[in-house]
Amino acid sequence: MQLFIAISPYKHLVNDDLDHYIEISNDIDLLLLRVPMSRNLLCNAIDYLLTHGFPRDKLMVHTDISVLELYDLHFIHFRENDEQAFLYKASHPHISVSMSTHSVHSVERAKHHHLDFVFFGHVFESSSKEGLIPKSVVDIKIATSIDIPIYAIGGINQDSLKVLPAGFQGICAISFFRDCSIQEIEHLRKVWHAYV
């Protein structure tokens, strides 16, 4: 089971970005590459990661099934309620298929279609969701009672993790994992173990 999922910022990744994820690769459990890059540039980034020691089994791509299959990866993530996710999971049960969710209904749909896990959020105020109200404690409680692994997303850091409502199996973050050091991730893991 994956616990700490780093999500790349939504931008063209340069070598400095990739080097950072290589540096922290032992301390994260998955890296979701969610970028506006062309397929060729994304492949170049994956080639760079793999040739510089990033573990293949920790790579997750967003939506692009052709890249998943080209690199023989095991994890793919989709937008909320993307029918592609449901169809792909049905025909490729051995691949881990996950989805972003923003409502209890979406979590229920993901479970119904046998997806492996979902991101649910945003759970705290987040720079990527500026001005939008985080999920209520009631929504979180209902969502986490559904029998599918749920990962908290939105505003996750060392402080917010201490007040994260119970029931999540792991966490996802863009800013924290983009900006953190190995020592900060190790500290976050200690906070996480106190949470669970």
UniProtKB/TrEMBL annotation:
<dbReference type="InterPro" id="IPR036206">
    <property type="entry name" value="ThiamineP_synth_sf"/>
</dbReference>
<dbReference type="InterPro" id="IPR013785">
    <property type="entry name" value="Aldolase_TIM"/>
</dbReference>
<protein>
    <submittedName>
        <fullName>Thiamine phosphate synthase</fullName>
    </submittedName>
</protein>
<keyword id="KW-0784">Thiamine biosynthesis</keyword>
<dbReference type="Pfam" id="PF02581">
    <property type="entry name" value="TMP-TENI"/>
</dbReference>
<comment type="pathway">
    <text>Cofactor biosynthesis; thiamine diphosphate biosynthesis.</text>
</comment>
<dbReference type="InterPro" id="IPR022998">
    <property type="entry name" value="ThiamineP_synth_TenI"/>
</dbReference>
<feature type="domain" description="Thiamine phosphate synthase/TenI">
    <location>
        <begin position="58"/>
        <end position="175"/>
    </location>
</feature>
